Amino acid sequence: MCTSLIFTTDAPYFGRNLDLEYDFGQQVVITPRRFPLTFKAVPPLERHYAMIGMATVAAGWPLYAEAMNEKGLYLAGLNFPHSARYPCGREDGLSLGPYELIPWLLGTCETADQAVEQLRRIRLLDVPFLPDMPCAPLHWHLSDGKRTVVAEPMAEGLRLYEDPVGVLTNEPPFPFHQANLSQYLGLSSANPEDRMGAPELKPFGQGMGALGLPGDCSPASRYVRAAFHKWNSVCGGNEGASVSQFFHILDTVAMVRGAVRTSEGKWDVTRYSCCISAATGAYYYKTYDGGTVSGVAFSRERREGSALACYPLEPMPEPRLL
Ligand SMILES: C[C@H](CCC(=O)NCCS(=O)(=O)O)[C@H]1CC[C@H]2[C@@H]3[C@H](O)C[C@@H]4C[C@H](O)CC[C@]4(C)[C@H]3C[C@H](O)[C@]12C
Questions:
Q1: 138 alpha carbon to ligand 1 midpoint, in Å?
Q2: What's the pLDDT tens digit per position in 100-118?
Q3: Ligand 1 mean position to 79 CA, how many Å?
Q4: 243: CATH
């Protein structure tokens, strides 16, 4: 399972927890403007917007889990295993593999409006990237900080939803999460007042206004918990404070090894959490075993060029011996 979050303070910040029972060869990858992006069924993009994100590189190609481009447009793929259907979309549409959606949209669009226009005419193919790499069943979180949209490839077609919450998890489809959230409107960061007519009773500790906030790792519960913490967030208005707060919100929905066992008997854990700054382009991340926050700058020089730039994930730092 995964959780994606859009959070705005001084500027928009985008990111996610990637929860999975295995590593997929992930590293931070910058695709610069002149890296030739080839596609299965549409002509290559020889020049495009540069992007930064977490990807595995297979056959020389960046397979992104999430990324942001140099214009501040973010797109993340999250598991959607029961509902995702490919092929999906207009039969006469622009044909892309699901793994091509992030490079294509981020390579060609500046804004969420433009990406939505493209999505309306895209057909998602059921063509594996490599014979031993089937298409991942995904839905997507798209944002430029002004407009946030969820795209779900369903049997009925590609469904697009405006997202006023700025949170995406996994199944079931997005309308459920919106409706479910309404059941938690009574939660508050403030202590509860007596409404039972029992004046001698008082809250005996802090945090009791949010009693009932679901604490488990299911998609619906992570959705509500991330939304509660995002809306009740109090945070300084600079990049350091915002990134720190962003990771604290993601921590509330992170998976601790042992708490979630898959049907194959494996442990789902938060492999990494990331936060991308739309203002500076910096990609911040921390891994399950790494502990501290690391960052990769998306400087002007790194946006130019024609070769992928790959940054293996930092291990836990050595202790400083005094
Ligand atoms: C599993 C990832 C989503 C995180 C998530 O929701 N996990 C839940 C797992 S579970 O329900 O709890 O079992 C998704 C997000 C992006 C996906 C990757 C990207 O789509 C890029 C390629 C696409 C290839 O077709 C498959 C490998 C792959 C490298 C994908 C592997 C995996 O499906 C990823 C990493």
A1: 7
A2: 999 999 999 999 999 999 9
A3: 6
A4: 3.60.60.10
